[in-house]
Batch of 2 targets.
Target 1
Amino acid sequence: MMSIKMKSGVLKRMRNLLKSSLFWILILSLAVLTACTNSDSNTNDEKSNEDKPGTDETAGKVSIEFWHAMSGTGQESLDAIVEGFNESQDKYEVKAEFQGTYEESLTKLRSVGGTKDAPAITQVFEVGTKYMIDSGYIEPVQSFIDKDNFDLSTLEQNILNYYKVDGELYSMPFNSSTPVMIYNKTAFEKAGLDPEKAPETFSEVIATAEKLKTDDMFGFSMLTYGWFFEQLVATQGGLYVNEDNGRSGDATEALFNGPEGLNVFNFLDTMNKAGTFGNFGTNWDDIRAAFASQKVAMYMDSSAGVAGAIANAPFDVGVAYIPYADEVQRNGVVIGGASLWMSKGIAENEQEAAWEFMKYMTTPEVQAKWHLDTGYFAINPKAYDEENVKEKWAEFPQFKVTVEQLQDTVPGIATQGALISVFPESRQQIVTALEDLYQGADPQEVLDQAAEGTNRAMEIANKTKK
Amino acid sequence: MTISLPKKIWIYFLLTVTSLLVFFPVLYAFMISFMTGPEILQGKFFPQSFSLDNYFKVFDRLPLVKYLVNSFVVSVGVMFGQLLVCSLAAYAFVFMPFKGRDFIFFVFISTMMIPWEATMIPNFFTIQKLDWLNTYQGLTIPFFALAFGTFLLRQHFKTIPKELHEASQIAGLSRFAFFWRVILPVSKTSLVTLGAYGFLTTWNMYLWPLLITTNSSVRTVQIGLKQLQSQEMSTDWGVVMAGVIVVIIPTLLLLFLGQKQLQKGLSQGALK
Amino acid sequence: MNTHVKPGIWRRTGNARTAFLYLLPSVILFSVFVFYPMFRTIYLSFFLTNQNGEAALHVGFENFAYLLESSAFLNSMKATVLFVLYTVPIGIIIALFFALLANEKLKGIGFFRTVYSSTMGISVAASSVIWLFLFHPSVGVFNRVLSVLNFPQIQWLLDPEWALISVSISTIWMNTGFSFLILLGGLQNIDEHLYESSRIDGAGYFYRLRRITIPMLSPTLFFIITISLINAFQSFGQIDILTKGGPSQSTNLIVYSIYREAFINYQFGTASAQAVILFIIILIVTILQFKFGERKVHYQ
């Protein structure tokens, strides 16, 4: 045991030692505190500006927030477009703010919807359409279209069809894409195939994949993503859910495990069992890298990925329509992507600002820029007459295929796309079903499981609906 | 004491090989950050040239400096908040015997087991009600109380000889003075460890900062990283990797510079 | 000790009152940001929630019954347990190995220590992006090396047999830095004299490791095992970036499954029920660990 004398000695030494470090701790904490308060007041200043738009007195502008989920190239282009809008007039100012992926952004919106933290405009993915309409947080753009006598016929009808519910347009379509089949022309030549003639039906694709398969290269691949499955069902005229794809009422039962869905799963299963199908997972970039590094000769991609595929491939790239089952007519594609929603319950001048911005977004010039930067469709077909688009098309005729496929689409319930509030969950069920299929499970069995999961999700959603 | 030469060589060999293995992923990311799209897809390891294009693009696309500053402020804030709150609690647990202490300590520890993802959405509503969206408070204060930190400091305080406490009472130090002027200084080691831990985990947070910020005024760098990756369009991996490098350099630098201090702190350890 | 006065009742409650003051900041923060949401979670786990996440339909234990019957959830539990078993022991052994190496007093050891601890400075988001590339099926380094060595290629993240292992490898890498630093600190606290006297006795390296190092390191080991276990149960970021729970649900750890239910499917009821089950599991594991682990810990 230590003596008391020794202990006080220890204490004294400690105190001395401490003085210096204590001093530093104090200084540091002070510094942090001041830094915090300073920045807090800064943010509060900024915040109060954003919270109460329309009170930006210095400039006298109405300022609104626009939440989006565009990252990477999309964000770059979008920021430029928003800047263009802000400079084009002096009444409104739009602030574009990235909010994470579509899901993350929607989660946030669900939480702030109807409060003062809600933005004037939000970009929501296509499968969130049903939720948004039911949410009660939004002002249908149709009311502004009517008020302003805005001519909707200038916009692409096949895109509008998706977002129109009961003849009313709830949101302004924005970034829109469809699936396409992209293939390696050079590989086609090597296999003795005509590079200008891509296979069109399931059985043709199966046969072509067989011929293209080498030790290093798979014949065909598809991203493990529910969207592509939906498309392959729709192009056969098949429905995803009952109640006319959920458009005449709340859907209660999944139909995608019917004959059309089974056709798709059998199509994939045949190639998978024959070893001509390459599985590159759920990541967009992985499957594209596989194509660019010649690990797969044909694959399904989004029309927004065409530009990247051409730029990164050290060979000739062909773009074709998505395949369909042999025994049916081709119906075409369903639109994918996202649209812009206007919030309800915000100041009138903010809604006007939002409407002005939406109108600006539909102009041919903006749409031409957007189309060229990102590969998404122009929602205003006049954009395709712009000089810069024509030039690009002349250089890359592949782009044209994507637009033609959309315009060739037969309008109908199937190609209008399904409307269910639990779509994200259903897509996960499909992903799992596809993954199980690639592991050798029975096509009908995994499809039925996915349908069952979707049914349960829809049942809960309908049960808990207000 | 000396180490024999063959043993030395053997140790150096092991050190070198394992270090290379550990550091390889970072090195690889560094190499990719100089590559162009097609180069990356060809799966090369060395870039054709060390051009800084990707780095320019990163800084061009994002307000990265602002994000870095925000990350720094938030991380330092959480660090000090945690040190204070946790050391106060740990002090009470070790030096103030009271009824039910073990139970309360266990309740504290149990908070470690609650998955953060499960509490995130209610917390979001709390922050929104406090009007703390887009503020530093919202980013920092929820993390001040940390069971892990309390646990760490308690383990350390336990090794402090009881005699010291008694001596301090004889010397007439108040409870707080004893805590502030004796306990904290002799626990520098654990405080440094906890500080580093707090700083780094906060620096690395992603989902929470994304949720409670709606504009870039207080956003942190990890969100920037996400913004560089596209969803449906093709991602420019060279730029993403340049972003990764920019994001990890400050923390690596901190580890590198703080290594000596951290090491010293750790080695001083418990009073013997 | 003579100065020790028998404490009166005032003094005793005084302790409790002062202690409460010191604990107050933690108590407030925990109540607001941990316990309140936790109780809310427990509450919600007995409900089905509507599309806005509000409790809409009281269903009693139906959410739990559904989960315990659902093969997806059982699979998730299995994956979580496997993940913990893959990452915790191996991660700690590797970190201990590094710490022992870096504890040798050699020239330039500081450099190696920095390298070993470096992964602590790299965020989960950043490291997952890097590992995504390393695992890449067509351009990734691992498959390139395999093909150079003429081994068959591995579908690291796409083959359900491999995905969990791949995610575990990257997780071990991410956690090494932190465990290493803690263990190195522990090693350096061990009294040199203990080794010197054993050296005189002529004890070999492994004997010393077993008889001196490990026992003396046990508090640190106990600490790092506790932390690693809890961290492993709560791993999320790497799953989100590397696999999103796939392929065939093989990496759908419970925390990720909770995130998916809550954030994407917006089913707070089932998400909450999963969170409650996860909490109970971690609680049991921790109690067991404290019960059996702390007994073996050797406090100096």
Target 2
Amino acid sequence: MQNLGINVFLKGRNMIRLFEGLMVTARIALIAIIIGSLLGIVLGVVWTSKSKWIRSVCRIYLEMFRIIPILVWLFIMYFGVTTVLNIDLSGEFVSIIVFTLWGAAEMGDIVRGALESLPKHQIESGKAIGLSFWGLYRYILIPQAVRRMLPGAINLATRMVKTTSLVVLIGVIDVIKVGQQIIETSRIEVPTASFWVYGFLFILYFVICYPLSVLSRRLENKWNG
Amino acid sequence: MHKEANEVLLEIKGLFKKYDDMTVLDDVNLSINKGEVVVILGPSGCGKSTLLRCLNGLEKIQGGDIRYRNKSLVDKDVNWQEIRQHIGMVFQNYELFSHMTVIENILLGPVKVQKRDKNEVMEQANQLLDRVGLLDRKDSYPRQLSGGQKQRIAIVRALCMNPEIMLFDEVTASLDPEMVREVLDVILGLAKQGMTMLIVTHELSFARAVADKIVFIDKGKICEISDPDEFFTHPKTERAQHFLNKFQY
């Protein structure tokens, strides 16, 4: 039995620790996805403004997250900003901030694209029955845009879940870090631990991300059918 | 058809409209009485659709005045959301809201904008749908309907707001020929009931049948306003004559 690497999960609190790590990962991703999406919707609506100035500001904000790697953002916020402002922020808090800002930027772009792709007649028809600016967005534009932006939004969510693996590098003990610790401590007794632990992580990420893509396909079919 | 009522609902005075440097409407004067059916004819690009869009606040005008019930619609503080409930409009592209069923499309304005009782509106919607022969399609989505059906629903959607005036902007122009009739019949029915309407169309025989007054526009100007029979038999202007000739083989 000793050579059966899978036993590594049964030793001590290993399974519970992995689960705790998973919770940290899920918490960062979930909070960032929810708040980021809400901010992103607001950003997307603002982005469709006719003002060139507003559009440029939104564009620059997005490009800052597209051009600068998320890892660098995490480092700037965790090591840079905290020392300059002389404040103490936990790695998890910084991670949530960075992922939320990133999510909002990408989501804003997705929402903008969806809104701009809607036919102009839909807006005019809405106006013709007396809808106000907000009524137009609430009853016509947002519901239609949601259907169009869903594939992109779900894709963004899975990307965000996967990218949380970077938070290890600012000291957050997420599911990957816990996995590494387990591999380290079992190196002698279970030489194949890395296969089993990373294999388990592989399955975990799949379990989180796969339902999202199933959901997106279901909704798309429902709205198209 | 309803010439007895002489109350002026809509009055257009010296209307001037341009896009950038191009003048689209130049010194347009027209008044529409309650119950009157006015058909606007003219070659493509003459500005007739733009005229309708100005009346509904979808286009800004650069000069002149539009008065609805003697209230100017050119003032800065005009509440278009309010005005549009009285001046309904149906477009060429029969744009129903694609994510809503037929009945949801119809109820949206009366219930959410006018805050009317849902059951009362539902009853009215059912009657109107029945009248255009589409009661059985009330739970369908727009994508399940033909162009002619969609356009009839769009008319019902506008009517359900209880407008005082209806604007029809080439509502049959993008329909298959065999569906034109069913839509025109609905409009003809409205005319018989005394609805005040401003209609832009290319269907000349329909225009002749439905109109109380024909307005002929060319190059942004009103060239002639005539009685329909007179317009089609003895047009006053050469341009109108020329326009009518193009439709004869």
